[in-house]
Design goal:
rod-shaped, 83% helix
Length: 133
């Protein structure tokens, strides 16, 4: 009887240790996945930001040259473009809190995206499968 009890507790200890190790491994894998998702979201945003920067740069250069030709003074044309840039900077400073909140929400959404996903294969009832004959 004493051997059975010792055996039982030895096996129980082994099972609990294995469970703890597996749970820790699952936590690590989940962390890796979430980190990867955040990095991918931020990388995507950085790529869009870079492309948007160059797009706006060339649009405003073209606008500066256009206004310079139209007003017969390139200095005035580019001064107007500088004014537009200053207005845009003012808008970013004015809406700082909203921009920060949006970025924060995007990062948090990327972090918790897996928590709300359900595996559709688990919800599918095999008895509902149509078999065409």
């Amino acid at each position: 009887m004493k051997l059975d009890t010792e055996n039982f507790f030895r096996e129980l200890k082994k099972d609990i240790t294995t469970y703890g190790e597996l749970k820790f491994e699952l936590l690590k894998l989940g962390t890796y996945e979430r980190t990867g998702k955040v990095i991918s979201v931020l990388s995507y945003g950085l790529i869009l930001l870079t492309l948007g920067f160059f797009l706006s740069l060339f649009i405003f250069l073209a606008l500066g040259f256009f206004l310079g030709e139209w007003l017969n003074s390139k200095g005035i044309g580019f001064s107007i473009v500088v004014g537009i840039y200053l207005l845009m900077i003012g808008g970013v400073v004015l809406f700082k809190e909203k921009i920060q909140t949006r970025v924060l929400n995007t990062v948090i959404a990327a972090l918790i995206a897996n928590d709300h996903k359900t595996d559709e294969t688990d919800e599918h009832d095999p008895s509902e499968t149509d078999t065409a004959e």
